[in-house]
Amino acid sequence: MPRPPLALLQGTLDVIVLKTLSWGPMHGYAIARWIQQVTDDALRVEEGSLYPALYRMENRGLVKAEWGLSENNRRAKYYRLTAAGKRQLVEESTSWSHFAHALGKILTATQQPA
Amino acid sequence: MDTEPKWRRYLRFWGADARADVDDELRFHMESRVAELIATGLTREQATREAQLRFGDVGDVTRTLHHLARERESTMHRTQWLEAIRQDLRFAARQLLRSPGFTTIAILTLALGIGANSAIFSVVYSVLLRPLPYAHADRLLDLRERNGAEDTQGMVVTTGNFGTWLERARSFDALGALSYGRYTLTGSGDPRALSALRVTAGYWNALYIPPALGRYFGPAEDAPGAPNVVVISHATWTSVFGGDSSIIGRAISLNGEPHTVVGVAASEYELTPSAPALITPMALTPADLAEHSDHELAVVGRVRQGVSTEAALAELTRIETELAREHPHGNFDGRILATAYRDKVLGPIRPLLLLLGASVALVLLIACGNVTNLLLARAAVRQREMAIRGALGAARSRIIAQLLVESVLLAAAGAVAGIAVAALGVRFLVSGDSLGVPRLQDASLNAPVLAFTAGLALLCGVVFGLVPALRASRTDLQSTLRASGNRGGGGVRERLRSALVVAEIAVALVLLTGAGLLVRSAMLLQQVPPGFSTDNIIVGGIALPQARYATDAAKAAAFAELVANAASVPGVEAAALVSRIPVGGRGYDCGVSVEGAASSATVDANVRSATPGFFSALGIPLLQGRTFAATDAVASPAVVTINASLAKRLFGGASAIGRRISNCVGGKDGAPFWREVVGVTGDLHARGLGEGVTDEVYFPNTQLVEGAMTLVVRGGVPVSGLVPSLRRVVAATDPQLALSSVRTMDEIMRNAMATPRFTTMLLLSLALTGLVLAAVGIYGVIAYLVTQREQEIGIRMALGARASSVVGMLVRQGLVLAVLGVAIGAMASVVATRSMASMLYGVTAHDPLTFGAVATLLVVVAVVASVVPARRATRLDPLAALRGASG
């Protein structure tokens, strides 16, 4: 029996999207699919919530959108990271790994509190 | 599979469609997902349901995205718009820098126009537009009593009537009475004469501004017998007491009596720099409250909240009517003359400021006319540039916007330079402090004035930029590009430029006529003989404190001693005392009647009390009979002298000597007190040269005793050198006395003329500025004509035309413009100067001499301004000009 998907932590969607786009320009559907593949569906991202996140990041100048042609020759909106987006991704990754490291230490602790 | 309707693409051709983009993007997502799910073996129906499940609420997401997209678009528009403006500004600045001559002239012209306007506006704002500083200033009324139906000025109020108003009137929150006085301050350095306002406690309620320090005095402290208290003005506090806050509660010696300082009044009470230095309580004694014929108190009232002014005045009129019935001989008829306090304070200065404002606006009009002309000339030069830009696809609106940005930038630069002009102007205007214009000293370049300047600059930029911009953008592409480029817009543009110059000349004529009329008035005033000597005469006030000089005899003795001591100072030719000095001192008049006259009609005449030497000291000639002598003592027969004008009015051609007259002095409740006329003296303009000859009655100071007199000293040496000795003599007579407001008679005459002189000077400088600007305008147009007709002139010269005929031809053009402008301006002046009638002396508002002189001046200036560029045309090299024609 598959484990139920993990709920997404607030604010994590942005960093996931940034990471996804770090591979190169992608349209929204491709981003959704990539997240799904990488996490083996373990992270349930409601696909609809992806777009507001993308639009907000576009307004903040982290990503830039352009219309282009998809793999099957359809008009699709492609997103790519801007310089500001790349900087943001580095910052977020660092703080996430700090967080994960700290949390890991707590959860694997063997010493009981004094 | 392509489900997007094809027509959508055409929509996008006209610009991005944010909503459609959102819908397209989401549709692409759904369709891709459905296609993929179908590939895994689901039916289309199942796939669609699964896709929707994975996506979430489509409607909700769509709405959010629409909103976010719109947000993004508006930010984008704003940025684009700002970017366009920035580009236009940068381009405009480059264009302006490229022709520094044009830019400098335009900026200087605008700086003059905008700066002068800002300076005048700063005064108008400070004096007229700011609200009065008092709480509830809109409900304040100045209240006066009327004395007969033809009395439009009204009289100040009797003490008894004021007391009755206080007692009976219910529609006023506060009623305050005030009169003026003088105190000698001793014990704080040299004795010093200080002007004072004597007020009832209600004054502070009516005209309330929180005190700078301490408190004001209350109802118990203006009662008879209350301890002496005083409030000092803010200026006195800083200048006399060094801003020492420990002054509160201390006693200062005024007229030899200790007065406790209870407060320092707010500085806003000082509307002019000569505002009273002290404010003391006015105690109304039972005797004062029973006095219903002596008009002494200025009264200000604050109408009760919720009561209309009409209702309050109706109530007061009812009370006044009762009083008039009870006291039929009190010189009041039961009616109240009320003026809004604001009009009372600011009314007299309003016409002057409006005149200045209008004049300075006219100067700006001329300046704008000039800049418009400059821009039109530039537009002609830049026609090719515009045509090329148009050909390259610039929209007409874009070109107009660009040119407007340029003219507004020009105006902004003019405004910045204008602020420097305004700063100088304000400093000059405020230096006219002695004019007694309320709140003039507060004028400065504050935020409202700067906002006015900015608004004016924007307005000017658009106004003078719009017509040239519209014209420049309307160039005929083909013809311009085909032409050699040295030919301007031709007839239309030339006509417009000429019309502008005609208008400038007309406006300049209006300004010059106004100034000319004032100058003529001033010249005529200079020639009026005052009727007394002003040479080498010095005057100063002396007030005897009532406490030390209680009786008439004591006062008379002290004054006699003072005159004798002053006369003994080396260098003094004559010394005398008079109750009010002509021109310099405010007097009062009352009706004079003749004994045995058939009619009871009276003639109003000024009342003055004087020592025997007064007439010779001030150089007033004796025409008949005698002046006063030492024998005209208290108990001697009552005598007066009158001036020739009054003698003529009372007695016609008959001799006045020996006849008996009576006025308000000495008679109680209308009963006449007859005095014999012993002399007739020369006429004088006691209210100033601009006013007519006044009627005068003089009393010996022994028979009309006043506590405050003016010392009049004629010197055999320059009088300013006498002042220290005179002060010593006064102090030697009584150390508690001091000479106040010492001035030469010349100064008094100059001060009386200060306002007209200041107005004349200001209007004259504005008019001359206008003249210079108009001359520059004419010069510009003729110079432009010369460049336009270079080839024609060259041909004429080559064919043998004489230089003089070419100059004549061009000057004639300037002359036509000037004559047209003068004709239009003369018509406008007739209307405009009518409003100045009250400021003129000896000339009518349409004085032909002034009009003629001004018109001639303008025509001459126009001719000169045309000759200069015209002569340059004759020095052109005909060959070069002809070559230009073939190019």
What does this structure look like?
The complex is a heterodimer of chains A (114) and B (887). With 114 residues, chain A is α+β, with helices and mostly antiparallel strands. Chain A has one domain (12-107): Winged helix-like DNA-binding domain superfamily/Winged helix DNA-binding domain (Arc Repressor Mutant, subunit A). Chain A has helices at 12-21, 28-38, 47-59, 83-107; strands spanning 26-27, 63-69, 75-81. In chain B, a hairpin with a 5-residue loop joins strand 3 and strand 4. Chain B has five domains: 7-84, no CATH class; 101-134 and 350-489, no CATH class; 147-334, no CATH class; 495-527 and 746-887, no CATH class; 549-733, no CATH class. Chain B is built from 27 helices and 22 strands. In chain B, the strands form three sheets. A six-stranded mixed barrel of chain B has the order 3-4-9-6-8-7. Chain B has a six-stranded mixed β-barrel with strand order 14-15-20-17-19-18. In chain B, strands 13-21-12-22 form a four-stranded antiparallel β-sheet. Chain B is of the alpha+beta class and 887 residues long. The interface between A and B is medium-sized, with 20 and 24 residues.
Number of domains of chain B: 5
The proportion of residues in beta strands of chain B is 5-15%
Oligomer: heterodimer
Query: How does the helix and strand content of chain B classify structurally?
Result: alpha+beta
What is the typical, i.e. mean, pLDDT of chain A? 84
Secondary-structure map:
The complex is a heterodimer of chains A (114) and B (887).
Chain A: H1 12-21, E1 26-27, H2 28-38, H3 47-59, E2 63-69, E3 75-81, H4 83-107
Antiparallel strand pairs in A: 1-3, 2-3
Chain B: H1 7-13, H2 18-39, H3 44-55, H4 58-98, H5 100-129, E1 140-145, E2 157-158, H6 159-168, E3 172-186, E4 192-199, H7 202-206, E5 213-214, E6 229-232, H8 234-239, E7 251-254, E8 257-264, E9 278-281, H9 286-289, E10 295-303, H10 309-326, E11 336-340, H11 341-346, H12 350-381, H13 383-391, H14 396-430, H15 447-473, H16 477-482, H17 491-526, E12 537-543, H18 552-567, E13 572-578, E14 589-594, E15 603-610, H19 614-618, E16 622-625, E17 639-643, H20 644-651, E18 660-662, E19 675-681, E20 696-700, E21 708-715, H21 723-733, E22 740-744, H22 745-752, H23 754-788, H24 790-798, H25 803-832, H26 848-874, H27 878-886
Parallel strand pairs in B: 4-9, 6-8, 15-20, 17-19
Antiparallel strand pairs in B: 1-10, 1-11, 2-10, 3-4, 3-7, 3-10, 5-8, 6-9, 7-8, 12-21, 12-22, 13-21, 14-15, 14-18, 16-19, 17-20, 18-19
